[in-house]
Predict the structure.
Amino acid sequence: MFGATDRDADLFHVIPEVIGDGFPYLEDGRGRRAAVLWPADAVHVPEHGVEVLLREAYGWDDLVMASRDEFEIWARLVPRVCADLGIEEAAVPPQFPLFLADAVRAAGVVLRVDADLFAGRRRVKTAHQLAGIRRATATAEAALEVARELIAACRPAEEVRAAIRAVHDERDCDFDDAIVAPGAQGASYHELGSGPLTAGEPVVVDLWPRDRHSRCWADMTRTFVAGAVAAPPLLEEMWRLCRASLDVAYAAIRPGVDGRAVWAASCEPFEAAGWPTQRTRAPGSDPEEGFVHGLGHGLGLDVHERPNLARLGDELVAGDVIAIEPALYRPGFGGCRLEDVVLVTEDGCERIGSFPYDLRAA
């Protein structure tokens, strides 16, 4: 691998220290794990079972004198490291940089891209990562509670989002952004939302806090009706079907099950009620109404990672953490989405968190 741990989750998984400059990491297939680093970045790396190879030992100083291009320097240095470690063939992740692949291949090393290998290394969460996901989920729940009160009072989306940010800060979580999408804006599932809230309209609130200690994410969504009023019949129907889809998904999630099969099962309540899903819409058509996306995705050092629970599916394993988010959308009206964080256990699954699904904000 080559990158910086503050931007590359695969690297951070093996060296959970924040290193802002790119560096190469290599495994020799016989248990030796090594990173080529500047001494100042190497202080805590051995604590994670990774040997530090100082870049100066491979001619860094001479290479710097000969070139001002850091990429060219690494392109000349990394083949030397491969030769020293006896690496003649290697697996690399899909994001492995082209400049370095060209240089290493030119030196005779055979490279193959193996996305499954690198995804699989991160599937089963460590105790530290799982604790971080639980903290981030608790932050999402605390923020949803604050958001629910403001939505009951029909406060503007911007005010609700600001209150959500404050909860993140109080609980030591990073705030990337949040969806607070009132009315028809909720029909676009990536619309952040803005403007006033009108009593009786749906409001989709989607939060993805990241725990600062573990750098792991949560991802939770609830849908509320604005104001202290009853939900309109259409929203009640959408909510009922999303709850039914969640129940089906929970019953299906267990080790060994294909995520595609879980997604397919989650489509059935919608289809039985006459709503379109990705399974029933015409190929090539533009999805706008119904259950227009997959059921969910893995969660950890990235907010979207393997396993997939959609048309692309992966076999679930104990230790996976996933987000499941059945939803319905109708242009001009809005959306309803319910999203939970779920741990796959040895005999089924565990819902992380316990925030209620109620539509009523008050």
The chain has a mean pLDDT of 96.
